[in-house]
Specification:
Layout lengths: L1 E5 L22 H4 L3 H4 L7 E5 H5 L10 H10 L1 H4 L11 E5 L15 H11 L3 E3 L10 H13 L4 E6 L4 H14 L3 E4 L7 H12 L7 E4 L8 H5 L3 E5 L2 H8 L5 E2 L4 E2 L2 E2 L7 H8 L5 H20 L4 H16 L5 H10 L10 H4 L5 E2 L1 H28 L1
Parallel strand pairs: 1-2, 1-8, 2-3, 3-4, 4-5, 5-6, 6-7, 7-8, 11-12
Antiparallel strand pairs: 9-10
Helix pairs in contact: 8-9, 11-17, 13-14, 14-15
This protein binds zinc ion.
Length: 391
Amino acid sequence: MKFFFPDSQDQIDPGFDFASEERAPHRVRQRDDRYAHEALTHPPFDGILVSKTIVDGTRQATGKYTLAQRHRLYRNGARRFFRLDPIDGAPLQIMGDCGAFSYVRDDVPPYTPEEVIAFYAESGFDLGVSVDHVILEFNPAAAEFLAACGARAVRFEPVGVAQGWSPGSYATAVDQLQRMGYQRIAIGGMVPLKTHEILACLKAVDDIRHTTTQLHLLGISRCDSIGAFASHGVTSFDSTSPFRQAFKDDHDNYYTLDRAYTAIRVPQVDGNTKLKARIRAGRVRQAAAFELEQACLRLLRAYDAGTTPLSPVLDALRAYDELFDGRHDRTEAYRELLDDRPWQRCLCGICATAGIDMAVFRGSERNKRRGFHNLFVFHQRLHRELATIAV
Ligand SMILES: [Zn+2]
């Protein structure tokens, strides 16, 4: 079972100083910043999923890549661009896709099969997902894509995309793709489905699936069900959720093998919209807000160093919380996290240097580090789950 992480150019700056919140003076982003597979002790995934819409953008939206990054990807190929070759262990694979969700409102996909094939071939991908479109029942572009891959003798493996709205329609789509000649098929559109609904679709697909056909679940990361998915021919999946939960989820921000903790909110006075509005309205004194913000950071660091007990830390956090979000009292969640200090035992390679700042919800350097840590833990959970299946 392979886990692919969708790339969005998320990197951390290893020289970032948490105390001063400044970067190293000579930092060069493209040279010094680190991807998750470089920052952690082991790569937290088996491959990277690169979307054409993220790299090139569409008519409606710009991509996440700068012009310079895009040129480097095309010129050097994805392996060099992501610096994959110095990474120990099994080689990380690169799968390309078109980013169906980015153009779900368009009538036709924004790229032709030829454009997509050129993107995959020039970037040196290992796998390439066919041009797909989430609302079409049957997509003639999938046949055209496969034929063009054959004609050009591309080096990546073509992946068909099955879309559906019911178990039967997924089975029909997989059947059609197999008839075209696809041996690897990505299943899309399942993100909103409950696990039992996903399994119902996979069971229907089982009736027509060749034993050699391998399935990839697009956007699905449900560790508990991975064994069930595997029994229906699923050999890979991709998801951003372990990373994104670090700074998007209301509660589950810091993963450990057996649970998730709520990260400690210490927003920047300057960066918090609600707090800024309150300061402008004269309901909060700016100086008082800055003082509380700094007191929280200082006390958290002192707590990690063992020079202050827990209760003054919780009091300061609660007082600061009242300024920007009085409705939620997170004291008990914070107490659990601070009592347990999971970052002190974590072997991800980032927790050991960043310490308690891993648990602080604040700014992208802390939040992305926690996201990388979550990927590491997720990968461990996945392997634990797979080991129980093997037994
Ligand atoms: Zn960690």
